[in-house]
Amino acid sequence: MSNTDRRTPANSVDRDAFRDMARKFAEREIKPRWQQADREAKFPREFYVAAAKAGLIGLHIPESLGGADLGVTEEAISIEEQAKANPNLAIVALIQGVAGSLLAEHGHALHHAMVRENIAGERLLALAVTEPEAGSDVQNLKTTARRDGDDWVLDGIKSFITLGGDCDTMAVLARTDPAKGRHGMHFFAVDRNTPGLETSQIKTYANRPVPTYRVMLNEVRVPESRRLTAGFGAIMEGFNRERVMVAARWLGHMQTALAWAMDYAKVRQQFGKPIGANQSIAFKLAQGHVDVEASRHLTYHAAARWDSGAPVKDIILDVSSAKLFVTQAVYRVTQDALHIGGGWGITEELPAMRMALDALVAPVTVGSYEIQLRVIAKQLGLPCD
Ligand SMILES: Cc1cc2nc3c(=O)[nH]c(=O)nc-3n(C[C@H](O)[C@H](O)[C@H](O)COP(=O)(O)OP(=O)(O)OC[C@H]3O[C@@H](n4cnc5c(N)ncnc54)[C@H](O)[C@@H]3O)c2cc1C
């Protein structure tokens, strides 16, 4: 799919009712589950099955492949509501969306069957792009795919692959023709149990319910039928969609942190009055309110631009602005909530530290602060490298 012929969503829904449904889903399926998953750093697979049953996987995928053919706006609403309950389990649908899109838009019948299974809750997907030496600089990736008869043989190491050890299939980006640089890359749909593919969990302080993995590819043989028609360009477009979802994720989390801090500031008494009666505390909360409102506008503006079908090149500025602002704002809001919690804030008796820890990952994934600033500067016509 080129920059100019993007599909617009075929269907629409009553967005208030849809938000209500997503909120109820999060209360029913995320709230009772996330703390144990966080403690154990173990993905609860039944959550993915529940999300699929609720119709929240593959929201934007065409109906012909089992999806709902809705827009980025509905996906953002779903992610925002889920993230209010827990920002980590909320990314399950997000990752399925990015990997599922690659298979749907750049695959054939075999991949399309995988997409149908994914939407039905029967095939969990992961996206394997990042490598130990190629994080922000995706073009520098080293994983190779060598043609051998009717097969391809993959070698390399991927890092930080969310759900890499839990998924059934991962979309792996590899160099198929090193001489062609970023134009010589393709994705392959590789099943996790393929001989030569091994995973090991990377222990993290944040994002624990949806773990990340190192994926070692050692002479992993897959047939040509597993190759997608797309590579680097497709994932850059996918990242731009994902950035809107990431903004929605942190918008949801920010609201929960702010609501908690507001309540705490009203009930916690010192010097005979609520701590929120002090300007220095009240101003933090007032700033938090503005951060939430500004984040909401930027996120849904970027989502609406995406749904308009405008060429990706014309909406990059809106997308990166939303991603940058929201990920900075969630940092401010959660750090302020932690501060308002005082000494109790860093205990396990209050949620402030957990919320602040989770928000630390906000600026990193799908293009860091600096990468968004670089994109924005270039969009503004600055000769910035
Ligand atoms: C929890 C988590 C989940 C993830 N899930 C996935 C996944 O499912 N699939 C996947 O493929 N990847 C995933 N990633 C990887 C993620 O996209 C990378 O971590 C990210 O791209 C940054 O790469 P890096 O960590 O190697 O940092 P680096 O690229 O090494 O960056 C380090 C620092 O240098 C800065 N920097 C880099 N380049 C520049 C520059 N040109 N100018 C100024 N500053 C610069 C960065 O902003 C950053 O502050 C995940 C990461 C995390 C933490």
UniProtKB/TrEMBL annotation:
Q: What is this protein called?
A: Acyl-CoA dehydrogenase family protein
SUPFAM superfamilies from the UniProt entry: Acyl-CoA dehydrogenase C-terminal domain-like, Acyl-CoA dehydrogenase NM domain-like
Q: Which residues form the signal peptide?
A: none
Keywords of this entry: FAD, Flavoprotein, Oxidoreductase
Key word Oxidoreductase present: yes
* Gene source species: Piscinibacter koreensis
User: Is Nuclease found in the keyword set?
Assistant: no
Q: Please list the residue ranges annotated as the Acyl-CoA dehydrogenase/oxidase N-terminal domain.
A: 14-108
Q: Where is the Acyl-CoA oxidase/dehydrogenase middle domain?
A: 126-220
User: GO molecular function terms here?
Assistant: acyl-CoA dehydrogenase activity; flavin adenine dinucleotide binding
According to its UniProt record, which protein family does this protein belong to? Answer: Belongs to the acyl-CoA dehydrogenase family.
Boundaries of every Acyl-CoA dehydrogenase/oxidase C-terminal domain copy? 230-380
